[in-house]
Amino acid sequence: MGWGPLLDESRAEIRVQFRHVPGNLYKRNFGTDLDKATNELVIRVQPNEAIYLKINNKVPGLGMRLDRSDLNLLYKARYPREIPDAYERLLLDAIEGERRLFIRSDELDAAWGIFTPLLKELEEKKISPELYPYGSRGPVGAHYLAAKHNVRWGDLSGEES
């Protein structure tokens, strides 16, 4: 999950990149750059709400070749009605007295119980967030962290913006 103010584009999404399975049945018979690609589930919250599933699948037939397929549900294409903004929904629920989307006081206390020690440690050790230039793709450390865990950071191929 990535987020940050002043990035090169405004987007909120959750990405789940699945690990490669051990043992490659298909040797080096990849059609493209598939040896680096992982199966991935992308849930885009905003803008252009969508769900993508990127998978490496066997090409039908007797050969042993893989191809990259993208299954996507782009909400604006599937549901032509305008989707209300999250804040519109939240305000409407508040007006109607709906409480399911709001945090309870005991949940808030539990959250503070988790984060207060963390915030104190950050303050004591004088740890500051990694800065990055306005309009960039974010902090360099995020890319190193992704590479350390074999995650392809920000691979947007096959997705509509």
Rg, nearest Å: 21 Å
Calculate the terminal CA-CA distance, rounded to whole Å.
17 Å
Number of helices: 4
| CATH topology (fold) name | Dihydrodipicolinate Reductase, domain 2
Beta strands, count: 4
Name of the CATH homologous superfamily? Dihydrodipicolinate Reductase, domain 2
Average predicted confidence as pLDDT = 78
Unreliable segments of 5+ consecutive residues:
none
User: What about the largest sheet?
Assistant: 4 strands, antiparallel
Tertiary shape: extended
Domain count: 1
CATH class reads Alpha Beta
Q: Which structural class is indicated by helix and strand composition?
A: alpha+beta
Helix fraction, binned, reads 25-40%
Q: How are the strands of the biggest sheet laid out side by side?
A: 1-2-3-4
- One letter per element, helices H and strands E, the order comes to EEEEHHHH
Quick recap:
With 161 residues, this protein is α+β, with helices and mostly antiparallel strands.
Tell me what you see in this structure.
The protein has a single domain (12-148), classed as Dihydrodipicolinate Reductase, domain 2, CATH 3.30.360. It has a four-stranded antiparallel β-sheet. It has 161 residues and is an alpha+beta fold. It is extended, with a radius of gyration of 21 Å. The model has no long low-confidence stretch (mean pLDDT 78). It has helices at residues 75-78, 86-96, 105-124, 140-148; strands spanning 12-17, 40-46, 50-58, 66-74. Residues 5-153 form the Glucose-6-phosphate dehydrogenase C-terminal domain.
